[in-house]
């Protein structure tokens, strides 16, 4: 009726809030998967606090963004950017889709943080304009469906690649054997005859390499993989190391668990 005051009050969340919560929730899930993988494979979790902190922080951020308004989203933006800097190395996992426990946490963390930050900015703007919704609609709903579907598809693909890409080798006849476990090589010094082979196995759920720059050796190992590596007939003393978890410029076997000395006689 003309002249009647509109007393309708819109109740809901600022548009894009749900997508921001999904992003921050994904960022919290990523280190949780890393911890679960480490526990399942019997890794030493003495440094678990490093992963527990982002789990707790992003869980709290997701809760705050869901329950409160602009100030909570600003906090989410700031902590999201700090979190991206804290675990920037997780970007590496995006390049190893054939190792599930590296790839999927990276898929959840890196895009999750970006999604949380970008959606929080959009939610602040939507809130100021009074764009409140009782449930996800339009672009936000599509964004949620796309994000969830993308992670699900990538998880399946990565799982298949991890299983089918696993390599196995026979240690028989190898001049030496070395395992990678707890982000360490089982031997810091390996001595083998020139032209012989070394049996290497990865007992971690994460991707490692056995690299000797001077000999042109650079073998990658996904979870559960093993290989025999041919050593060239070039006597000498060399450094072997894992590229993702050591300093390829100056690995020091004295204080680097993922580097050691290879002596070829």
Nutshell version of this structure?
With 265 residues, this protein is of the alpha+beta class.
Assembly type of the shown chains? single chain
Backbone structural class? alpha+beta
% residues in beta strands: 15-25%
Main sheet specs: 4 strands, mixed
For the biggest β-sheet, the strand order reads: 4-3-6-9
Pick out the low-confidence regions.
Answer: 1-9
Q: How does the overall form come out from the CA principal axes?
A: elongated
Q: Please provide the ordered H/E string of secondary-structure elements.
A: EHHHHEHEEEEEEEEE
Give me the Rg, rounded: 24 Å
Helical content stands at: 40-55%
According to DSSP, the number of beta strands is 11
**Average predicted local confidence, pLDDT:** 90
The domain count comes to 2
CA(first)-CA(last) distance: 98 Å
* Number of H- or I-type helical stretches: 5
